[in-house]
Design brief:
The radius of gyration is 18 Å and the shape is globular. It has 273 residues and is an alpha/beta fold. It has two domains: 7-131 and 244-254, 3-Layer(aba) Sandwich (Rossmann fold); 133-240, Rossmann fold, CATH 3.40.50. It is 39% helix and 16% strand. It starts with 6 loop residues before the first strand and ends in a 19-residue tail after the last helix. α1 links the parallel β3 (36-42) and β4 (65-72). Mean pLDDT is 87; it is low at 1-12 and 15-32. It has a five-stranded mixed β-sheet, with helices on both faces.
């Protein structure tokens, strides 16, 4: 199983709007009011689902942040949210990251908590590449050492555990529950998603003594429901991975911080005589 090669162009660029417009990336002026330019890399979605996700991204950005949308020829919408998606999409995400850097973007954020292509892209560009999954789990670890994680489906949990180990947050996770609603059915079963999310979260809080709920799926939060709404219902904080990733990127750009060359060394290209 694999995805077609190549990354989709054009990129959509947004500033202060909840509707998506398409622009060619090259020679597009930024405007004096934009201080941070973030490229969000998305897979392919049906039109209504695409606009729903773009609107959610734009709501996460601060004033003065310009959001660009790079679309790769891959979809997470009709396949299980599992490791094969992240591995297959990784090179496409990295390709977009390189084009974004070359065209003046300050940071790259792959959409979704699979963090597809994050490690590969960090080896290829010097601008920050922020994973939503990694950033929200590290935020949770600052707030509590008892995190309850909610996933879409059980099939995605093994890959989550691998990521948690790589991110050194496994010891903070007291339990993982799946709502067992595929991403493809999320809008049609929106009410059931809400009910199942609350049920699984309460189970984590009451049985596993979770103090924070982390939705590992941005369609649950914030595309379909807000973290604030669920927090009020549950009586514990519910985190928003999409907002965390966008605003982590903003912080890194504004503080002039990026990944260490000791961690991601760059090798000079040599030519043979």
């Amino acid at each position: 199983m694999g995805f077609p090669k190549g990354a989709g162009i054009p990129f959509g660029r947004e500033r202060g709007s909840n509707t998506a417009r398409e622009f060619k990336l090259i020679d597009e002026s930024v405007g004096e009011e934009s201080f941070v330019k973030i490229m969000v890399v998305m897979g392919e979605y049906p039109p209504e689902e695409r606009e729903r996700r773009r609107a959610a991204v734009l709501k996460c950005a601060s004033a003065g942040t310009e959001i660009g949308f790079g679309v790769i020829k891959a979809t997470f919408f009709v396949r299980a949210n599992a490791q094969i998606n992240a591995l297959a999409a990784g090179p496409l995400v990295a390709e977009i990251a390189q084009k974004a850097e070359a065209n003046g973007f300050d940071a790259v954020v792959p959409f979704g908590t699979l963090d597809a292509g994050v490690e590969l892209a960090r080896n290829l560009v010097r601008i920050p590449v922020i994973g939503a999954g990694q950033s929200v789990m590290h935020l949770g670890a600052q707030l509590s050492n008892r995190l309850g994680v909610v996933a879409y489906e059980t099939t995605s949990i093994p890959y989550m555990r691998k990521n948690f180990h790589a991110w050194r947050v496994s010891d903070f996770v007291v339990g993982i529950r799946a709502i067992e609603i595929p991403l493809l059915d999320s809008t049609q079963n929106r009410a059931a998603m809400r009910e199942r999310f609350l049920q699984m979260s309460r189970d984590l809080v009451e049985r596993d003594d979770a103090e924070i709920i982390v939705p590992m799926g941005v369609t649950m939060v914030p595309v379909q429901y807000s973290a604030a709404e669920f927090s009020q219902e549950l009586g514990v904080p519910v985190l928003d991975a999409l907002a965390t990733s966008i605003q982590t990127a903003e912080i890194m750009v504004r503080t002039g911080t990026t990944h260490s060359l000791k961690t991601y060394p760059r090798r000079e290209t040599r030519t043979t005589a």
